[in-house]
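Worked Example 4.2. Consider the chain below.
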Amino acid sequence: MIPLRVRRFWQTRRPYALGILLCFCVLGLVPAGYGQTDRVSQQISELKAEDAHARSNAARALGLTKDPRAVDPLIAALKDPDEGVRSTAAGALGKIHAPAVEPLIAALRDPDERVRSGAAYALGNIGDRRAVKPLIAALNDSDGGARRGAAWALGTMVEGPPNDLRAVEPLLAAARARDTAVIAGAVAFFYGRVSDDALIAALDESGDIRTAGFLLNCGNPKLEAAARRWAARKGYQIGGYRMQGR
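Applying the procedure from the previous section yields the following structure tokens:
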């Protein structure tokens, strides 16, 4: 039983309490969305900052938002005079899974190898069939990192959506030619298709953290040991089944 004095107190103040509660709801919900909108707009504006480092940070942040409003500004950033900004913009478009296939295909011919590599990884994340032929051509890139990125993208698109098999023979041909960058990039594709020694050689000569991470978790003790040795040489720490930089 609620005491009479408590009931009267609530009855006299209920209109005010409801109003205050409504204010808290509005203040708690509306500004949150507004703040997100404001941050995205600010980051888009930062893509035009004078400082290249600031533009690169803005591109990276926009990729994390996955906001579709960032797509066109990031496509424009693929033509930034600074190669670091272009590379970061390519990666951001891949994180958003943006419908930016043609601009990223064009970026596969960028003068800077980091941009070409970033565009390849982005195209692999997006998984559009239109990128398969340009990525196959990128397997002949003069830079190992760019070839590794193209191989990763193609391996992803063979093994998963869109399950496009056109890249199978070009990847196998690169392996027959002992292109360790291609093997390291498409390590999941080549696992079971080439020897353990070929995978270890690819890791040691051209591998990156993606290559080592796959081998660390593949269930093959020989390859797992090789990945641990690679991580130790490169200064990575292994916690469980994950690698982290020092």
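The longest strand covers residues 236-239. The beta strands are 236-239, 242-245. Compare this with Example 4.1 before moving on.
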